[in-house]
Amino acid sequence: MHGVISAPQLVTKHNFINVLQIRIGHKLQIPYTQPNLAEVSVEHLGAISIVRLCRPKKRNAISDGVMAAIGQRFEEMPASTRAVVIDGEGDHFCAGLDLSELKDRDASEGLYHSRSWHKILTAIEFGSVPIVAALHGAVVGGGLELASACHIRVADDTTFFALPEGSRGIFVGGGGSVRVPKLVGAHRMMDMMLTGRVYKAAEGVSIGMAQYHVPAGQALAKAIELAERIAQNAPLTNYALMHGLPRIAEQPADHGFFTEAMLAAIAQSAPEAKARVRAFLDGTGPKVKAD
Ligand code: 1HE
């Protein structure tokens, strides 16, 4: 291969350290933040767990410590947990980013901060079990970004959805520009950010912000009921849904059909799937009921 200069050879001694630092992430590392576990509780109730934002005096605004604690609570979920409910203490689900921490950040810190939200919210969205968000009151800014990383959203009648970033002179940074348009479309999100439009519960649900609309005060009970139902599914099917559907949605149809066939084959070959199908054929498994 004499005479051919490959890319690695172009790395001079002088810039070698910089390249190495970037490759190993030394310079681009997300700074470690001590998780504030007192403000994010977890409760294990059999096959489901409830993760709760416990910062009602600040309307559950997400500080760095709260976001790190959300990450840790999910990371430490026991294997017995088959579905999670996420809830917020007090009158509001979540008022978004803790704005008091924003004022001192420079551009590079802003980048790391946004990437830290991406890392944690992506880890929970593509984690091991489905998450049901129990929404009430404000679901705004980063609160909507957190909710949109969940798999099911239940909104009670007090819920309102907004993206006030536009009016604060900032931008979404917790994955909202990727996830919210998938729920409601890019132009609805653009309207929310450009004009400060607020969607109340009924209209929000009708455009796809949440899948369920319940009376005031009933979001948590409904979310628990759904999580308990989800926890009864074969874990492999839940996993295939969480990890397969969003990816298939982004694949060309031909690739999607192939991915679907692979998932179908893997899921149906599990002993649990065979037992469930046999139970239906024996007349002991559940029928589909209209109500
Ligand atoms: C906060 C925050 C916060 C409340 N950061 N401290 N999010 C927002 O722009 C929404 C800002 N919050 C609000 O519009 C309102 O607080 C609510 C509609 C959510 C609730 O109103 P209310 O009347 O019940 O409460 P409040 O009196 O406004 O707030 C109570 C306290 O919480 C008060 O502090 P206190 O020390 O005076 O008692 C507020 O300052 C505090 N508080 N919300 C910090 N967000 C990854 S990028 C994501 C980008 C974003 O999320 S931007 C959108 C931020």
Percent helix: 40-55%
- The CA-CA distance between the termini, in Å, is 71 Å
- Binned strand content: 5-15%
Question: What is the tally of beta strands?
Answer: 9
Number of helices: 12
**What global shape is seen?**
globular
Query: Sheet with the most strands?
Result: 6 strands, mixed
Each distinct ligand: 3-methylmercaptopropionate-CoA (MMPA-CoA)
Q: Class by helix and strand content?
A: alpha/beta
Overall mean pLDDT: 90
Report the uncertain regions: 1-27
Cα Rg: 22 Å
Strand order of the largest sheet: 1-2-3-4-6-9
Helix and strand pattern: HEEHEHEEHEEHHHEHEHHHH
Topology:
Elements: H1 13-23, E1 40-45, E2 48-53, H2 64-75, E3 83-88, H3 107-125, E4 131-135, E5 138-140, H4 142-148, E6 152-156, E7 160-162, H5 165-168, H6 176-184, H7 186-195, E8 199-200, H8 201-207, E9 212-214, H9 219-231, H10 235-249, H11 253-269, H12 271-282
Parallel strand pairs: 2-3, 3-4, 4-6, 5-7, 6-9
Antiparallel strand pairs: 1-2, 7-8
The chain binds 3-methylmercaptopropionate-CoA (MMPA-CoA).
3-methylmercaptopropionate-CoA (MMPA-CoA) is lined by residues 58-59, 61, 92, 95-100, 117, 138, 140-142, 164-165, 168, 170, 172-174.
